[in-house]
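Recall that a protein's primary structure is simply its ordered list of amino acids. Everything else, from secondary elements to tertiary packing, is in principle encoded there. The following example makes that idea concrete.
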Amino acid sequence: MSPAREAAPQPDTPVRPGMPTRPGPRVSHRILAVRLPWWPTERLVRRFPEARTHPFVTTGESRNRLVITAANPRAVRAGLTPGMPLADGRAVVPDVAVRPADPAGDALALERLARWADRFTPRVMPDGVDTIFLDIAGCTRLFGGEAALMASLRAALKDFGLTARLALADTPGAAWALAHYSAEDPAVVPAGTGPNRLKDALAELPVAALRLSVEVMDGLVSFGLDRICTLFVMESVKLIRRFGVEPVRRLDQALGRVEEPIIPLRPLPPREARRAFAEPISTPADIRASVDGLLDDLCLALGRSGEGARRLHLVCHRVDGDRRTLTIGTSRPLRRKKPLMGLFAEKLDRVEPGFGIDEIVLAADVVGTIDELQTDWAGEADGGYRAGVEEELAELLDRLGNRFGFGRIGRPVPRQSWLPERAAVREGLDSGSGSHPGSAVFPGQVANWPRERRRPLRLLSPPEPVEVVIPEFSGRPAALRGEFRRRTVTEAPQYHGLLGFRRQGQFHRLRTAEGPERLECEWWREEASRRDYYMVEDEEGCRYWLFREGGGGWDAGRKLSDYGHELSGPRQELPGAGPRWFLHGIFG
């Protein structure tokens, strides 16, 4: 039998019956556990200098008395330990500095530190009250290997005034156990060594290293199972029957038989490029050159996937642990370096390098598919011209959006409704769903606008109530019978339905009119109404769009004689008397 045909080797230790296992081949991970043993006190050193030079403790209430919850190294050497009543502690160390415990603040600060640690790997997760997990698989080559990465991380934490214990293994459970209970620092289990090597590394550690609950741990110790090696010889069925599934599950997680995922603080962006510098950079020219190179890498990756960026984040990590972030957006998916660099160039002067920047990360967290647009002689005759116009417009919108905000830029798009105020809606620039440059600008929507209906350039919202003057005669106006089109008031006043209207104290005598055009609201709306629209022109040449709403006769109203015009018995219709008249738009 050839080597390729040989049976697959059996695992070092058989999988325990009844336990869930991971299907398929094992995914390679390298988990770095960072334990901060003095975290609750060391994080307060910057705010309270006495925490550095004096015995320092934090306290919390337990059973109606204050007890010590955390102590710095000086306090521990003086005999103060967590769980001790504060009164007893003061008897031992009278000048001890005391601050109230803040578990929520500790957790928030640990999360911030974990976010800072994503300069080493994007897969970072805080765990518990004093530990951070980093999955550094695939990232060590950027730092010169695992040892160099751990040394760099330890040095950075030391600069922050933090004490750290490090452990590196293939599983989070093993790394956590070694970081908390191993005598070595850093404790390293070589990669890919399998469960047997992990068993050797964990064998002499206490069962507390498996992250067990207090009840289960006390039960194991009471039976003499105080070391992890004592669990190796126990059958899983007996362990489960006596102590539940927790010790078996935790042991299999530590040995890699059951998957324990690392859930990053932030989702991994679909595309990312980063550069770490051997020496910090601080000049604008160096920062610009680095961003230029990162855009090359990112655009190349986007091109391979047929995508373009809609939003990009540039994160500059400073040597003092702070970061500076720049964000740009685009009106359409884009992967050309020149316009992207132009958008970043307008903001690069906001980056304050401080004492220097040691890493820059460029990430595209919002991307879209780009459909290639054919613009040569084999495509449309005006394809090149149209593409150029749309590209120029898109670049203008990008600059405006990044300066004033994309939420302030929009376009009107048609909507299926007969009522004018509902026939168009505003669509934000960032809601465009197309994939070519013109999809986010208005030229692609022109063909969808209804062209058979004439509408005013300016629509009033809401419509203004107006007073309308009509001639006094019997019967309905000829305009409603469809017999009148563009007649003048002076030529045929006896057939015209409108003589003029009053708006904002000014009377407009009409010269021509067209209508009516009847529009009705959708039948399913409760406020369904019927409107008759007229396009009218006054003697000054201004054109208006009036509509009549409501019931009542055309001659309903009262005599009007104070307009100063020689009209034969006019009547006016007021907004509260039967039918109501409104000015809805102005042409030109």
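The chain has a mean pLDDT of 78. The chain has 15 helices and 23 strands.
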